[in-house]
Specification:
The protein is 13% helix and 23% strand. The chain has three helices and nine strands; from the N terminus they run H-E-H-E-E-E-E-H-E-E-E-E. It is globular, with a radius of gyration of 17 Å. The protein starts with 14 loop residues before the first helix and ends in a 10-residue tail after the last strand.
């Protein structure tokens, strides 16, 4: 998965860097194929699988929703790895900048966990929507700026996209990150969608999953919270 160079500028949002490049090969010495520490104690919610054809103009019309497939994957993962804490979602376009959130089909879930020398657990979606690959460990430390996300994110990515457009931010974006932002003021402590915009102004637009407020970050170098 491609990470845009702008991410390196986001001091307040350094998780993109701390979590490592999305889509890293599992043959890397930093990565280790995960094996569940215990057997499943409760079944994960079923996922309705819809095969993704990237050549189709209507590739995602009948798929299970973004938040539902993530909820099912998080619940399944934490059943296998009870000490894993859900920290982040990274979703990126496979076709370049877009204004359509349904194109963000390259998805990674990041969990913090201590397993020997490893510190995090990654779960990547396959090329079939709603179907997830084998979890793998990495010794990359998740960002300390990220709180623990709930398994149910609440607002779907499509609604977040509608809100930023209604607020006047209709330009293309390359990725969406979902995190719980510990460094921000207490009143902003909630699930936040971070839209990495294509261009320099604003560099990031955030949407609160609970308060539904849209905030823009115009200068990513100063480490400031959204306006």
């Amino acid at each position: 998965m491609y990470l845009h160079p702008q991410i390196a500028l986001l001091v307040a949002f350094a998780t993109f860097i701390a979590a490592g490049s999305i889509g890293s090969s599992i043959s890397s010495p930093n990565l280790f194929i995960a094996q569940p520490s215990i057997n499943l104690t409760s079944p994960a919610l079923p996922i309705n699988l819809t095969t993704l054809s990237l050549s189709s103009n209507n590739i995602l019309s009948d798929r299970v929703s973004f938040v539902d497939t993530i909820y099912a994957a998080v619940r399944s993962t934490t059943s296998d790895y009870p000490r894993a804490l859900f920290r982040e979602v990274q979703a990126q376009s496979v076709t370049g900048p877009t204004t359509d959130p349904n194109i963000l089909v390259d998805v990674r879930l990041i969990f913090s966990i201590t397993q020997g020398s490893y510190h995090s657990l990654y779960v990547d979606m396959t090329t079939t929507w709603g179907q997830w690959g084998t979890p793998f460990f990495t010794n990359i430390n998740p960002s300390e700026d990220n709180g623990v996300l709930p398994s149910s994110l609440g607002m779907d990515i499509t609604e977040a996209d509608q809100l930023i457009k209604a607020a006047g931010f209709g330009q293309e974006y390359e990725a969406v990150d979902i995190r719980w932002p510990n460094p921000f003021p207490a009143e902003w402590q909630e699930v936040l969608y971070y839209f990495l915009m294509d261009g320099e102004s604003p560099s990031v637009v955030t949407v609160g999953a609970t308060d539904r407020k849209v905030r823009a970050i115009y200068d990513s170098l100063d480490g400031s919270a959204p306006e």
